[in-house]
């Protein structure tokens, strides 16, 4: 039998409170409502809340302020922030402060019922085991958001960042080159209780095989030719802080066993020394390869893989989060402007070209393209200011969608009965655009200047 657990709904919109009340009452929750932050604070100590829903935008305060008060006073409560504007920055801040979930309006009945079922199950487990809730540092540092975006995939990634940051777990960040793996690693460090200590980044692929052990663990004087003095390694330099091992799959297997020992025993040994040193380091690793495939092929130790990926964060490539491209472009343009001057703006056509481009180099390639365009332009970026490779791609798009002859079946006459109907012409046009975007519906919708729902309806007609 379900226990009637207390939940508090904080929102200045009666319709939202009513929607949640109906769902949660059906699920057996005791409901209390508050229409403002002030009212929520009055009810803070009236009950031991199991679940709290709170809107980000309240009339008298923001939801983050309410969240901090509840985390401090009732850390056992599962706090859910609700927002009408999806934001990776908001998700990161909410989860790093201690939010249980970050919901984007409009959410569905299924979203709420699944969430409430999970909270009920966890509450029951905690009641039976009486395990203490992990303490969260209320004075966490939220980095300036170069981790920008609003795409659902990226928002989910940053929720994970916020949740894992306060722990001591090793983290593996997987993603293509240029997706921002080091930025995410720095965010985890900055949001942890190690933020006051060093963050040491190591590009494992850039260190020669014969030097990697010395670089990471240090060496004693005379331990090899050229070792004219004792030297501390980067692992020891990160003592008390975080070491970021970028491109970890580039390390040779014979050295991977030493990384494993350092992780398991929290100790290292300098090259040429028989003395072990205790080092307290949190390890965050990253790779642009499929680490499981690397382990299966024998190029990476399976035991080290399992040790590193206690938590894995998969960063999506930029082509899978096309809605973030305009946000990044404007951000990089602002960074490129001289102090006191207005940042360059993008013409609609230039932005359309940027959004449709594949970006194999991801965010790093986009940043370089924007810097090039801004330097070539005078306050407004037009297509001709973009790098030639991007213009060439845009030319391919134009030629693909403007080739009228390709849309007419071979051998067609000029008689009216043989011409394509407008609908047939439209559907073939859509098909060509989809072929160009390699099936990426988001990019196709942007090229066609329609929303995803309209595109879906057109594709349904195409299939029938």
Brief description of this entry?
By secondary structure, the chain is an alpha/beta fold. Helices cover 45% and strands 13% of the residues.
Could you please describe the fold and organization of this structure?
The chain has 19 helices and 14 strands. It is of the alpha/beta class and about 475 residues long. It folds into 3 domains: about 5-130, Response regulator (Rossmann fold); about 165-315, 3-Layer(aba) Sandwich (Rossmann fold); about 320-464, Orthogonal Bundle (Helicase, Ruva Protein, domain 3), CATH 1.10.8. The strands form 4 sheets. A 5-stranded parallel beta sheet has the order 2-1-3-4-5, with helices on both faces. Helix 4 links the parallel strand 4 (about 80-85) and strand 5 (about 100-105). The protein starts with 5 loop residues before the first strand and ends with a helix.
What's the SSE blueprint?
Elements: E1 6-10, H1 14-26, E2 30-34, H2 37-43, E3 51-55, H3 63-73, E4 78-83, H4 88-97, E5 101-104, H5 109-129, H6 152-164, E6 171-174, H7 181-190, E7 199-203, H8 212-217, H9 234-237, E8 242-246, H10 253-265, E9 267-269, E10 276-278, E11 282-287, H11 291-296, H12 302-308, E12 311-314, H13 325-336, E13 345-346, H14 348-356, H15 362-376, E14 380-381, H16 388-402, H17 422-436, H18 441-448, H19 452-463
Parallel strand pairs: 1-2, 1-3, 3-4, 4-5, 6-11, 6-12, 7-8, 8-11, 13-14
Antiparallel strand pairs: 9-10
Helix pairs in contact: 4-6, 13-15, 14-18, 16-17, 17-18, 17-19
């Amino acid at each position: 039998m379900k226990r009637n657990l207390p939940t508090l709904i904080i929102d200045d919109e009666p319709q939202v409170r009513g929607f949640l009340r109906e769902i949660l009452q059906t699920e057996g929750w005791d409901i209390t409502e508050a229409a403002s932050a002030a009212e929520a604070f009055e009810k803070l100590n009236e009950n031991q809340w199991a679940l709290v829903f709170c809107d980000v935008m309240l009339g008298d305060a923001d939801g983050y302020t309410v969240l901090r008060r509840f985390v401090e006073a009732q850390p056992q409560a599962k706090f859910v922030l609700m927002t009408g504007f999806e934001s990776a920055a908001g998700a990161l801040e909410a989860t790093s402060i201690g939010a249980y979930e970050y919901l984007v309006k409009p959410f569905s009945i299924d979203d709420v019922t699944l969430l409430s079922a999970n909270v009920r199950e966890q509450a029951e487990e905690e009641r039976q085991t009486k395990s203490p809730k992990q303490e969260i540092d209320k004075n966490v540092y939220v980095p300036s958001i170069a981790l920008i975006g609003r795409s659902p995939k990226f928002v989910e990634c940053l929720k994970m960042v916020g949740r894992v940051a306060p722990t001591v777990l090793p983290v593996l960040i997987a993603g293509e080159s240029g997706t921002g793996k080091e930025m995410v690693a720095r965010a985890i460090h900055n949001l942890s209780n190690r933020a006051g200590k060093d963050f040491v980044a190591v590009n494992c692929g850039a260190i020669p095989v014969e030097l990697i052990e010395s670089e990471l663990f240090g060496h004693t004087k005379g331990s090899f030719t050229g070792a004219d003095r004792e030297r501390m390694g980067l692992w020891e330099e990160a003592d008390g802080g975080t070491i970021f091992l970028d491109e970890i799959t580039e390390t040779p297997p014979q050295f991977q066993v030493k990384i494993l020992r350092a992780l398991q025993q929290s100790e290292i040994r300098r090259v040429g020394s028989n003395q072990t040193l205790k080092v307290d380091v949190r390890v965050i690793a990253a790779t642009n390869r499929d680490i499981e495939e690397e382990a299966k092929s024998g190029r990476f130790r399976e035991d080290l893989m399992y040790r590193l990926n206690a938590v894995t964060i998969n960063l999506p490539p930029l082509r899978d989060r096309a809605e973030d491209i305009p946000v990044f472009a404007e951000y990089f343009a602002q960074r490129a402007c001289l102090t006191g001057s207005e940042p360059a703006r993008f013409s609609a056509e230039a932005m359309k070209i940027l959004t449709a481009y594949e970006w194999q180099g991801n965010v790093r390639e986009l940043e370089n393209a924007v810097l090039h365009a801004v330097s070539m332009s005078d306050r407004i970026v037009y297509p001709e200011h973009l790098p030639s490779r991007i213009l060439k791609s845009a030319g391919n798009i134009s030629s693909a969608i403007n080739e009228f002859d390709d849309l007419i079946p071979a051998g067609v006459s000029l008689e009216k009965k043989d011409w394509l109907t407008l609908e047939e012409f439209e559907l073939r046009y859509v098909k060509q655009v989809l072929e160009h975007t390699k099936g990426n519906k988001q990019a196709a919708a942007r090229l066609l200047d329609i929303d995803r729902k309209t595109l879906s309806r057109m594709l349904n007609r195409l299939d029938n």
